[in-house]
Amino acid sequence: MTLSDLAYKARIAIKVGGVFFVAIVLVYGIIAFIFMQVGNKTTEAEPQNLNIAFANVPPVSIEQALDLDGAQYTYLLNTIDNDYPVTTSAAQVFFVPVKNVTLSYTKQADAIAQEFGFDIDAVRPQRLNEGEVIYGDETKTLEVDIRNFNYTFTVKSSPMLQELVEATPSADVVSLEDSWKSIAQNIFLQSPGGNDVLSGATINVVYVSYDLSYGNYTPIDDQTQPQAVRIDFFKKDDLLPIVSPYFFTSQNYAILAPLTSDATVVQAQIKTYPKLLAGAGMYPLITAAEAWKQLEAHKAKVVSIADNPKLPIKINNIYVAYYDPESYQQYYQPVFVFLGSDNFVAYLPAIKPQYLLK
57-66: per-residue pLDDT in tens? Predict the structure, then answer.
């Protein structure tokens, strides 16, 4: 074989090798593109077993959202791994039926009023509107929703109340907590919705003081002597956590004073709207990453934050929970919960926007 023959064959081999290399690269690129498209479809695919039972639903109304300029806040993701958590891709949505006023409402409302010490022969309920009545005397008021028998009871600011909250606490108040819980539970059972609240509820005890100027109860600090005790009942669900409109406190609570074995209820409220388990829908949810973008765009509703918070606010936890409203809403549905520094709490509707009414 001459040198020119060898050079010719070498050139042929290089050309064939080049074509073969290009073919391999091309095939690899096509395969990678196909896998990438499959991966994208998997990421974007709707969850299985969806059931859009109610068509589009109104977004959850966050009742205790603070009236503030959210644009002033900036955020820093500060979760354990500094990444967005993996959250459920779908959740059940439940219909909440509206109850009608029945002719027997007076009997049930009177029973609640008697439990709070009203003389129902002397004090008759006055109609506030088509769905609520109020009992009142010199020392206390009771508002009752005669459709579902939710209520709000308050002992008015008076010498009687002042005497109760200023009484000397027992030496060992902690030993009385179980008896105070029992008093609160028994009061709740006077309402048909009481079992809905108490079933598996988490009970939280907070010691409070009474502000005579503003007529409200506030949690004490280390330097303040307690004057009353607040018993909060946080509802539980087998599917997801439940959050209240206030997060740190519940709309279902009782306050008792004095801090002795003779404690009596000075304020109580039950606001619960049982959901209809039958016929629930299954709706797709946004991801935690999408929820974060909405938070940064100031779409989430802030329900708690300290005065003069340090920026950026460090978001330490993000999760999905059911929102338990204080007033009637047609659907029981999930929200994203953001917890952060300086007592920051914000809620955001979790259902994908295309399944929400505009």
Answer: 999 999 999 9
